C-alpha cells in the first residue's frame, strides 16, 4: 500500500484544528502537525459555548490553522493526498465553516475531499496512537457524548449502550459552574477533587441496579446542587475544603458508574481490548478506574491532547476512509446530527 498524507480540519465545537497525518504503507502513522486553537476565553463570560460566537471564530481561525499545520509539517497544500473534514455531528455553524473551508482547499488544489464523522474520529484515535487492530471496545466520553461502541472497521460501529441523558463532560462542566470553578469544568473539577475527600458526600450511582450498558448522569448534577445548597444554607457559603470534597465525591461517582458499565460492556463485546477517547478520557481518575475495569484485556488511553477535540484524529479517520476507497464530492453536507 502507498504512503498517504492527509490534511484534516476540525471545527465542530469550540476548538478550531488543522493537522497533517501521514502513513507510509503498513507503517505506524505519523502526526506531522496538530494545530489546535481553543476558544475558551471567548466563551468564558457566558459559562458555556455560544454557538454563534464559536462559528465566527472558526471562520476567522481556520485558514490560519491550515497554514500553520502545513508549515509545521513542511508541506505545501499540493503535496497532500486528500483533505478530510469533520462534517458532523456538532454545532452546525462550526461544522459548516469547516466543510466550506475544506471544499475551498479541495477545489483550489484539485484534491479529493473526505467527510469525517467527529465520533468516528474519536473512536479511531487508538489506531493512530497504538496501532490497535479491530475489533475493540471503545468508550467514548466527551462533553456531548457517552457511548460504548464495538469498533469492527473504520466505518463499522456497533453501539452497546450509552447515556440516557447528560454526557459526563457536561456533568463536569455543570459541576464547575455550580461551584464557581473555571470552564471547561473537567480539568478544574479534577484539580479540586485531588485535594478532596470522596467519602464525605454520598452521591448516587445511577442505573447501576439496571442491567445493560446504559448510563445516566443528570441525577448526579441534581444531587450536587442539593448538597451545595445545603451547605450554603447551613454556613452561608462554601469553603475551599467543601468544594474539594464535593468535586471528589462527584468524580468518584462518575468513575464508579463508568467502571461498572465498562465491565458489563466488555463482557458483552468479548473484544481483546478496551480503548477510551473523548475529553473526559483525559481525566486521571477516570483513566485509572477504567484501567482497573479492563483487567485481563489490553487497555489503551491515548494522550490527553488526542482525547480532547483535535484535527489529527480527523486526518487519521479520513486517511482510513480514503484508504478504503471512500471520497466525497462538493455536495458533502454539514450535518448537526449524524449517528455512527
Ligand atoms: O471531546 P471534547 O474535547 O469535546 C466534545 O465534547 O466533543 O470533550 C470536552 C469535554 C468537556 O466537557 C470537558 O470538561 C471534558 O471534556 N474534559 C474533562 C477533562 N478534560 C476535558 N473532563 C474531566 N476531566 C478532565 N481532565
Ligand atoms: Zn469531541
Automatic annotation (TrEMBL):
A molecular function (GO) term: tRNA N(6)-L-threonylcarbamoyladenine synthase activity
Reactions it catalyzes: L-threonylcarbamoyladenylate + adenosine(37) in tRNA = N(6)-L-threonylcarbamoyladenosine(37) in tRNA + AMP + H(+)
First-level EC class: transferase
Residues the entry annotates as binding Fe cation: 118, 122, 309
Gene Ontology BP terms: tRNA threonylcarbamoyladenosine modification
Residues engaged in binding substrate: 140-144, 173, 186, 190, 283
Subcellular localization, as worded in the UniProt entry: Cytoplasm
EC numbers, comma separated: 2.3.1.234
Cofactors required: Fe(2+)
InterPro entries: ATPase_NBD (IPR043129), Gcp-like_dom (IPR000905), KAE1/TsaD (IPR017861), TsaD (IPR022450)
Domain of life: Bacteria
Signal peptide positions on this chain: none
A cellular component term, taken from the record's GO annotations: cytoplasm
Matches recorded under Pfam families: TsaD
Residue intervals of the Gcp-like domain: 30-316
Keywords: Acyltransferase, Cytoplasm, Iron, Metal-binding, Transferase, tRNA processing
Cofactor note: Binds 1 Fe(2+) ion per subunit.
Assigned protein family: Belongs to the KAE1 / TsaD family.
Function field: Required for the formation of a threonylcarbamoyl group on adenosine at position 37 (t(6)A37) in tRNAs that read codons beginning with adenine. Is involved in the transfer of the threonylcarbamoyl moiety of threonylcarbamoyl-AMP (TC-AMP) to the N6 group of A37, together with TsaE and TsaB. TsaD likely plays a direct catalytic role in this reaction.
Name of protein: tRNA N6-adenosine threonylcarbamoyltransferase
Amino acid at each position: 500500500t502507498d504512503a498517504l498524507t492527509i490534511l484534516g480540519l476540525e471545527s465542530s465545537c469550540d476548538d478550531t484544528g488543522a493537522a497533517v497525518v501521514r502513513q507510509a504503507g503498513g507503517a505506524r502513522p505519523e502526526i506531522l502537525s496538530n494545530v489546535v486553537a481553543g476558544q475558551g476565553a471567548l466563551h468564558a463570560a457566558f459559562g458555556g459555548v455560544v454557538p454563534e460566537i464559536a462559528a465566527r471564530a472558526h471562520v476567522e481561525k481556520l485558514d490560519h490553522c491550515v497554514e500553520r499545520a502545513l508549515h509545521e509539517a513542511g508541506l505545501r497544500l499540493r503535496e497532500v493526498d486528500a483533505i478530510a473534514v469533520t462534517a458532523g455531528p456538532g454545532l452546525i455553524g462550526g461544522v459548516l465553516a469547516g466543510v466550506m473551508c475544506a471544499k475551498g482547499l479541495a477545489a483550489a488544489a484539485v484534491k479529493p475531499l473526505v467527510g469525517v464523522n467527529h465520533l468516528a474520529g474519536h473512536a479511531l484515535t487508538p489506531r493512530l496512537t497504538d496501532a490497535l487492530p479491530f475489533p475493540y471496545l471503545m468508550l467514548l466520553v466527551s462533553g456531548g457524548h457517552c457511548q460504548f461502541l464495538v469498533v469492527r472497521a473504520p466505518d463499522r460501529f456497533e453501539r452497546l449502550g450509552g447515556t440516557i441523558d447528560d454526557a459526563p463532560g457536561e456533568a463536569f462542566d455543570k459541576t464547575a459552574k455550580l461551584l464557581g470553578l473555571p470552564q471547561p469544568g473537567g480539568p478544574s473539577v479534577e484539580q479540586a477533587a485531588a485535594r478532596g475527600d470522596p467519602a464525605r458526600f454520598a452521591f448516587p450511582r445511577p442505573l447501576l441496579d439496571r442491567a445493560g450498558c446504559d448510563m445516566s448522569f443528570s441525577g448526579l448534577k441534581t444531587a450536587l446542587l442539593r448538597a451545595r445548597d445545603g451547605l450554603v444554607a447551613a454556613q452561608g457559603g462554601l469553603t475551599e475544603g467543601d468544594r474539594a470534597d464535593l468535586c471528589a465525591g462527584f468524580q468518584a461517582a462518575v468513575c464508579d458508574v463508568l467502571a461498572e458499565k465498562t465491565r458489563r460492556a466488555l463482557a458483552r463485546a468479548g473484544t481483546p481490548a478496551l480503548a477510551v477517547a473523548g475529553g473526559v478520557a483525559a481525566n486521571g481518575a477516570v483513566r485509572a478506574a477504567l484501567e482497573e475495569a479492563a483487567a485481563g484485556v489490553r487497555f489503551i488511553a491515548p494522550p490527553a491532547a488526542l482525547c480532547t477535540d483535535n484535527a489529527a484524529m480527523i486526518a487519521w479517520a479520513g486517511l482510513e476512509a480514503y484508504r478504503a476507497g471512500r471520497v466525497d464530492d462538493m455536495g458533502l453536507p454539514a450535518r448537526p446530527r449524524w449517528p455512527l
